[in-house]
Amino acid sequence: MKMNREFITQNSLLHWLNKIIILILAIFLTFPSFRSVTIADTNDVKELDSDLFLELIEGIIQWKKMTINTNINAPLLNNTFLENAGETTGDWYPLGMGRSGYEDDYESYLAVIREVVEKRYKQENKLSDSKATEWHRISLAILASGGDPTNMGNDSSGKPINLIAEGTYNRGKTRSLGAQGLNGWIWGLITLDSMRYFVPEKAYDTRQSMIIEILKMQLTDGGFSLSKSTSDPDMTAMAIQALAPYYNSEESYTYHQKARDKQVTKKVRDVINEAVETLSELQLDGGDFESWETPNSESTAQVIVALTSLGIDPLKDERFIKNGNTVIHGISKYMMEDGGFIHSESFDPKNPSSLPDESNTMASEQVMYALVALVRYYENFRTLYDFREEMDNDLKKQIESIKQSIETIPDDPHEADIHLIKQIFNDYLNVPIEERSYVFNYYKLADAMEKLGIENTSEPITEHIGINKEGKGTIVSLFDNGKIHASDIVFTENDAVSVSNLPDKITTEYYVDVVTYIEKLEHASNKGDYEQLLDELTDKKKKIEEIENEIELINQAILDYLYPFSDIGIKDKEKVDDIVKRYEALSTYDRQKIQNYEDVEKAETEINSLIRARYIMIGVCLIIIVVGFFYIKHIRKRRREKLQQKMIED
User: Fold this and answer.
1) What is the pLDDT of residue 650?
2) Among 249, 294, 316, residue whose Cα is nearest residue 43
3) Which of 1, 306, 526, 622 is surrounded by the most beta carbons within 10 Å?
């Protein structure tokens, strides 16, 4: 008992300490004058901001843990959280966490998402009929967790599941990437470039076709929107994120711009520059952004990701400092004392689930990965959606040297500078083409070459950027000086003990544990030492699947038999009794997954009332019949007696 009290006391102290730290950080971010002092020194800004942002990232993760009653020292990716794997609420947190290298149970996420994908692939529409972004979100979360989305099990015909092929360049074989509008093209391109995936010759879509579809949607004011005629910061920022790897491309595209209703010819760089200027104009005085006439944290977060993808420093670029406020000042307005973030400071009728005084899951997850993008930028890691292994020091030095050389080019170059510029360009061409997007200031070199008439012989980036057909994403810890998450899987003695402790009468409560241990054992380097456990785990998984199937059948039976509720009658008693019997056979945990069971109880009560009413009616009828019988018998007896009396008198 004493140990329990000490444990609770320690957790309480940690809880309050976290609150105090988060509150101090919120105050620290909120006051522009305080921030402006630290921004004055470049080195201090880099060091201080990275540490600060990591604290905020951890605070968001801890807030999320609290929302699902998880100890802050335990993994977020646990049984409760992973019930939503494959859904919007279950995939974005692994992405943000994985890109920060936060220590958690990514193996469990990968095990569960593999099961989810395989199950959905047994359905006609697989992940989704209309939303290609289902493939994109899941693929990115898998990569962030150290997995390979090109190898996610097998479909119902035994064919390997390749989420990249089916969700990006071959999505159009079943449904256009643009079926859900601009989002499909944007996230399709982001996902395709997440590992610089190779596109086969017979693919339905190419990088060029995806880029053109995005460019077509540029508005006359320079930005992008999902459906409006004026730019929206979210869509503009996401379009920039998708196009960013091609900012240095010298390819020109001729296409029909829908907003202008005419043919135009532009480079990706031209479109991005216009979009960036539009974002600058859309920024509010507080440093944040608004969407659909509501200032909000998510729009601001997307702009941060967009700027860092181009190598633009959100804290220093004058275009994104308004009234002394940066995007960080803007986003700090939405931070709550519990570590989470709200959507907006005022109630948004277009988003009624987001309250102005309550941390919001979507807002928090987007702020989290925006902060991750910032730290990655400041610490010279790959951009948020580039999941490849980090560059080695030689490549980093090569790129940094070229960037410094470009900065030496005069703003108004002359013929005397031609030799220097040609040398810098040759050095640039020595950078692998799939890495050239990290020479963020290349545009200065290109502009100087154009002004002096120097031929630009850069290869088409779209044709050479694809280098990988498969591969796992890399988890690098921003919290631990770039430590790489171990990819070697070892099944330990502790794992074996945990397996033996699983209950014989299994329930869906242990689904995550079972599939995680199966996945780990099947891919463990010491698999042979524990093969005897695989049959046991496989049997438990089969039983869990049978329970899940039974839960699904019960839920379907409730929908089929009980609605419309007004039609429930005694005729339904057998069906209702069967549902009740099957429900009671489930464990307490599994019963929670039965939807609208209260209606079953109402139906049971209604039917029992109808039966009682019928019995009462039958009883009343029997009484009436019996009374009537004796009454009639009595009447007949009286008549006979009267008749006999009359005969005697006569």
Assistant:
1) 64
2) 316
3) 306
Q: Which of 235, 318, 256, 332 is nearest to 288 (CA)?
A: 332
DSSP secondary structure string for all residues of 360-422: -HHHHHHHHHHHHHHHHHHTT---TT--SPPPPHHHHHHHHHHHHHHHTS-SS--GGGHHHHH
Burial of 352 (0-12, 13-18, 19+ CB in 10 A): exposed
For 199-236, write each residue's pLDDT tens digit. Answer: 999 999 999 999 999 999 999 999 999 988 899 999 99
What is the rounded distance in angstroms from the CA atom of residue 214 to the CA atom of residue 183? 9
Secondary structure letter of residue 437 according to DSSP: G
Distance between CA 536 and CA 57 in Å, rounded? 39
pLDDT tens-digit map of 573-608: 888 889 899 999 999 999 999 988 888 888 888 888
Where is 423: in which H helix or E strand?
helix 418-429
pLDDT value of residue 617: 84
Distance CA 404, CA 415 (A): 21
| pLDDT tens digits, one per residue of 224-280 | 999 888 999 999 999 999 999 999 999 999 999 999 999 999 999 999 999 999 999
What DSSP string runs through 586-617?
S-HHHHTTSTTHHHHHHHHHHHHHHHHHHHHH
Query: Do 235 and 225 form a contact (C-beta atoms < 8 A)?
Result: yes
| Cβ-based neighbours of 277, under 8 Å, separated by 6 or more | 222, 319
